[in-house]
Amino acid sequence: MVFTQQQIVESLAGRLIVSVQAYPGEPMRDPRTMAQVAASAVRGGAAAVRVQGIADIHAVRSAVEVPVIGLWKDGDTGVYITPTYQHAYAVALAGAHVVALDGTRRPRPDGLTLAQTIDRLHHNTHALVMADCGSLDDALAASAAGADLVGTTLAGYTGERPKTNGPDLELLEAMSQADIDVPIIAEGRIHTPPQASAAIAAGAHAVVVGTAITHPTTITSWFVNAVEG
Q1: Residue 21 carries which DSSP code?
Q2: Cβ neighbours of 161 (radius 10 Å)
Q3: Would you say the pTM of this structure is higher than 0.70?
Q4: pLDDT (tens digit per residue) in 142-173
Q5: In degrees, to the nearest 5, what angle opens at C-alpha 59 toward C-alphas 57 and 61?
Q6: How sure is the predictor about 15, in pLDDT bands with cuts at 50, 70 and 90?
Q7: d(Cα 1, Cα 116) in Å, to the nearest integer?
Q8: Cβ contacts of residue 148 below 8 Å, gap of 6+?
Q9: In angstroms, how far is CA 38 from the centroid of its own chain?
Q10: What is the dihedral of CA 77, 202, 6, 15, to 10 degrees?
Q11: What mean pLDDT do residues 34-48 have?
């Protein structure tokens, strides 16, 4: 389905985005399975889905009629969420309406600045850009660099902020009160409905929930730990 950029932003306001990802080697690590999980999330009311990997983006784009936020993880340390322009361009070509990428101030592997990456992506595709940030300074810089959305995805993972038990509501509040003129997306360690509601109250335009909805291995471990003490 085709959306205008304004339609995408407006459709997310006050809504839930579900992150549909499985890690390498897991039983659910299959594009068809991810597409089925994404479709189930949309049936439950998700306004959009966030998907990792080119094959998964292709599959999910064909399975749902909501905006698809795509990313490409390459590695697991440093700048690894859609780390280069070529990664971002491939994600857009795969059908993502929004390209999520590392929005921190750290050096990027291809030597481009975040602003250069975003500018090229805007020039060559119709995709919006979501900058995954780890701090208020990241979010301010990403907004100034041209990002269409900024998220708290990397809060607690870049060394600038402590890793909170649950969403970093303090960061959300600081971002909502700062001079950031693009929507703020809450993402990261949101595991319960009250936490999702608190994120909206703290100023989030939309909330991303992944593990607590789409990762059975982790959810099962929570219950196992509770039952077995």
Answers
A1: -
A2: 18
A3: yes
A4: 999 999 999 999 999 999 999 999 999 999 99
A5: 65
A6: very high
A7: 28
A8: 5, 9, 98, 128, 129, 130, 182, 183
A9: 14
A10: 90
A11: 98
Sort 38 into a burial class: Cβ within 10 Å, 0-12 / 13-18 / 19+.
buried
Q: How far is CA 56 from CA 21, 129, 133, 142, 189, in A?
A: 9, 18, 23, 26, 23
pLDDT for 1: 85
Residues 6 or more apart in contact with residue 47 via CB below 8 angstroms: 11, 12, 15, 16, 17, 66, 67, 206
CA atoms within 13 Å, Cβ hemisphere of 197: 3
**Nearest 5°: phi and psi at 69?**
-95, 115
Over the stretch 210-226, which tens digit does the pLDDT of each residue have? 999 999 999 999 999 99
- Reported as type and span, the H/E element at residue 12 is helix 5-12
Determine how β-strand 15-20 pairs with β-strand 206-209. Answer: parallel
The secondary structure of residue 183, as a DSSP letter, is -
Q: Give me the DSSP letters along 76-128.
A: SSSS-BS-SHHHHHHHHHTT-SEEEEE-SSSPPTTS--HHHHHHHHHHH-S-E
148, with CB counted inside 10 A (0-12, 13-18, 19+), is buried
Distance CA 32, CA 195 (A): 30
pLDDT digit string, tens, across residues 180-205: 999 999 999 999 999 999 999 999 99
What are the tens digits of pLDDT across the range 66-83? 999 999 999 999 999 999
Q: Is 106 left (phi over 0), alpha (psi -120 to 50) or beta?
A: beta
> Rounded to 5 degrees, what are φ and ψ at 48?
-165, 165
